[in-house]
Amino acid sequence: MNRTTVYATTTGIPVRQRPCAGAREQAKSPAPAVRDLRDRPGGGPRTLRFGPRDLAVVTGLPGSGKSTLMRRTVPGRRVDSQDARDRWAARLPAALPYAFYRPLVRLAHYAGLRRALASGEGVVVHDCGTQPWVRAWLAREARRRGGTLHLVLLDVPADTARRGQRERGRGVSRYAFHRHRTATARLLDAVERGESPAGCGSVVLLDRASADGLKRIEFAT
């Protein structure tokens, strides 16, 4: 049996559904289950657990801590484009700009994602937020396997995200950051209005403090 409800194991309480803006909108697109874990320093959950055939997408601004969160909390299958970029960067001259081998990184990332999905296991996926077709692909795959797509959204101020980029020694252009910021703000506004992100069955909102408090993102067996 696939349990698609998100659980925070410190409380054992499933995510709660946030009311929609109106009955007509709710009838057209049911609101996802939303758990807002922001502004809960020290009191947030330690574990997020999803159903065994579910998929989880971690999204947010560049530098918000998506890759760090995934490396630290996901003991099972995870697919992060940053890992693909690091593998290619290790093979190539350090002076070569990323723009020259970005297509190779994307090809390797999506090939790795396809392999992970073919396993039939739960997978946590890094989402840059500016490629809606990727989330649509994951939603279709979740439905095909009888599971649910869950969105984990890191809500981090732009200045904090830029600082995170500087600390890791890698950044995106001002234009690219603006695109990411616009996409993330639009997604966050929609969730806070009770509008369902396409294909998502639940949403977990994290700020930096609640993300730091998480210990595991896992799938039930």
UniProtKB/TrEMBL annotation:
<dbReference type="InterPro" id="IPR027417">
    <property type="entry name" value="P-loop_NTPase"/>
</dbReference>
<dbReference type="GO" id="GO:0005524">
    <property type="term" value="F:ATP binding"/>
</dbReference>
<dbReference type="Pfam" id="PF13671">
    <property type="entry name" value="AAA_33"/>
</dbReference>
<feature type="region of interest" description="Disordered">
    <location>
        <begin position="19"/>
        <end position="48"/>
    </location>
</feature>
<protein>
    <submittedName>
        <fullName>ATP-binding protein</fullName>
    </submittedName>
</protein>
<keyword id="KW-0547">Nucleotide-binding</keyword>
<keyword id="KW-0067">ATP-binding</keyword>
